[in-house]
Amino acid sequence: MIQRTNIGIFGKVNAGKSTLMNLLTQQVTSIVDPTFGTTTDIKISLMEIHTLGPLKLFDTAGINEKSSLGIKKRNKTIDCLKKCDLVLLVIDPNIDFDENFEIINLSQKYDKSLILIFNNFEGKKNPKSLKEIPYPQISLDLAKSDAKDELINFILKAYKPTKKKKELFPHLKKDDVVFLNIPMDEETPEKRLLRPQSFVQE
Asked: How far apart are CA 175 and CA 35, in angstroms?
């Protein structure tokens, strides 16, 4: 099984999360629209970045969505953050910052690497870095295709992956019994169990 680095894209509604997803994947993976709540469910994309290796990208719903499904989306977003190795927090510098602290606090709580990305929309002011927040910060116009290389280079410098040993059977407890079914011979049909193997399951 390929071990992938899980990278989640988080932020407020319309901050530019889906734009970032499309920038990294270089395709329309997520719908970009000014309508609140456009991202209805978590979008997932598999890709690979040189040096960083295989990745699993998550584009999440806005953390501050106020729709009838907002609470359910928010809970799924938090569950997604728990699975991530790296959190990319997309920020619109012209909108009140306070609600972004929820993602920052959750990243601290669950010991996640975090990068702040100020989406410097065309025509909007270039934000100053928030010195009181001790995380790497970068300002980019995510709608421009040439922002990809700059962002990836920044991620490679700022993110130091921790090599965590993954257990082969993470759900097993001590003294649990494991049955391993193996093919009888090379002629065994794929994805089928022959009678001796099926006895094990019965």
From this structure: 53
